[in-house]
Amino acid sequence: QKLTSDLSRSEKALAEVREELCHSQKKVISVRAEAALEEENKLSAIRSRLESEKGILEADNKDLRDELSKLTQVVEKSSASFEQHKKDLHLEEKKRERELARRWE
Hints:
Blueprint: H1 2-104
């Protein structure tokens, strides 16, 4: 009878330990799930911030390309104007040289 009583107490203790283990495992799973959800939320916030920054950078890049295009056009026009001015000055110089040569004759 003592053995049966000891066995019964041991079985109850074992059942309590199993119940505690099951409860602990559920807590661990819950904590891990909560941590994973928190990490996912952090990553989602980071992803959103990066997407926003990407949009800003792309807009800035477009603005810079547009500005570069405008400046390139200004430089090209200035260069063409300078070349034309150089030609005009050269023609004017030749004209003056001919005029001076005529006067000397």
